[in-house]
Design a protein that fits this description.
Length: 318
């Protein structure tokens, strides 16, 4: 009986390992979300392998354990690939940016969210699914006199970018074909240094291949920007998803590792990062933190600080 249980469990675990390992053969959209959980699944599979070995000590059980540990280790290595260099330590940040998916039905927490935005001391705020903030816009605009989005009532209030400084350039476009106006590209002058700011909100990766098409459009938009650049928003995928990795490599984007987990909320720090803040040289992140309170959203917000590398000098924030 023990032998039968051993081989049944081994068969199920082999199948699960094979599914996760498909990332090394194909970037199939239906499995993209699973790829985001490679580290979590690897650890789960390792625990399952130990259980199998407890049922019966056999060479195949050790093979399953080894493969599980390799998947976990490679997931960690992939995260480190996009880690920001240690730059700007002890240097005053050029600017601070906050990004947060409010959640489109989060009306009861709208006042607290507006209070948090104002108290964040961020120079630029990127808010997604911002409809619940409709009745707080004028209060926000007093602190952030420059904005993009939410100009035509609550039905048009999705992506809202707030800034304490005027926009040098600004553009709102669509990525992919599923939803409109979820890509904002702008630039802001921070004390003589112009920085490109891009906000993106991607579709969930298991909605057919919509996200893949959105990433193609996003990459083209980033190609049009030169100089310091920050990309922030809700990607609905982790940095180790193959499609996100391809974007980061192509655009030479970096973040801080490990990224703070932003979803699911119930998992806290043990979740995954599907909301991101990336930077492209000569812009560098010096800090990346998760907001203390999710404020009723199903995502956690992020706040980051940046410096610009100018042959060892950084323009001061003003």
């Amino acid at each position: 009986m023990r032998n039968i249980v051993y081989w049944i469990l081994s068969a199920f675990l082999t199948l699960a390992l094979a599914v996760v390992s498909l990332r090394y053969l194909t970037n199939f959209w239906l499995l993209s979300f699973i790829y985001s959980f490679q580290i979590h699944l690897g650890l789960t599979f390792a625990a399952a392998s130990l259980l199998i070995l407890a049922v019966r000590r056999h060479a195949y059980g050790f093979v399953l354990l080894l493969v599980s540990l390799l998947l976990t280790a490679h997931g960690v290595i992939m995260l480190r690939e996009f880690a920001e260099d240690d730059r700007g330590a002890g240097t005053a940040p050029l600017f601070r940016l906050m990004t947060f998916n409010v959640a489109i039905d989060n009306w009861k927490n709208s006042t607290a969210i507006a209070d948090t935005v104002i108290a964040s001391n961020a120079d630029v705020v990127n808010l997604l699914e911002a409809k619940p903030l409709t009745f707080h816009l004028q209060r926000l605009f007093k602190v952030y006199p420059y904005h993009i989005g939410c100009d035509n009532g609550k039905d048009s209030c999705d992506t809202l970018v707030l800034s304490k400084r005027p926009f040098v350039t600004r553009q709102v476009t669509s990525i992919g074909s599923l939803r409109k106006d979820r890509l904002v590209a702008a630039s802001v002058d921070f004390g003589g240094q112009t920085v490109n700011l891009v906000s993106a909100h991607l579709t969930k990766p298991y909605f057919d291949d919509y996200q893949m098409k959105e990433l193609d459009d996003l990459s083209k938009a980033l190609d049009a920007s030169s100089g310091p650049l920050v990309l922030s928003g809700d990607f609905n995928s982790s940095s180790i998803a193959p499609s996100i990795q391809a974007l980061l490599r192509e655009q030479k984007l970096k973040t801080m590792a490990p990224e703070p987990a932003t979803w699911p909320i119930a998992a806290g720090r043990f979740g995954i990062a599907i909301d991101h803040i990336f930077a492209r040289a000569p812009l560098h992140l010096t800090s990346l933190k998760r907001l203390d309170d999710n404020l009723g959203s199903n995502h956690s917000g992020l706040i980051a600080e940046f410096v610009v590398d100018k042959s060892g000098e950084t323009a001061p924030a003003q």
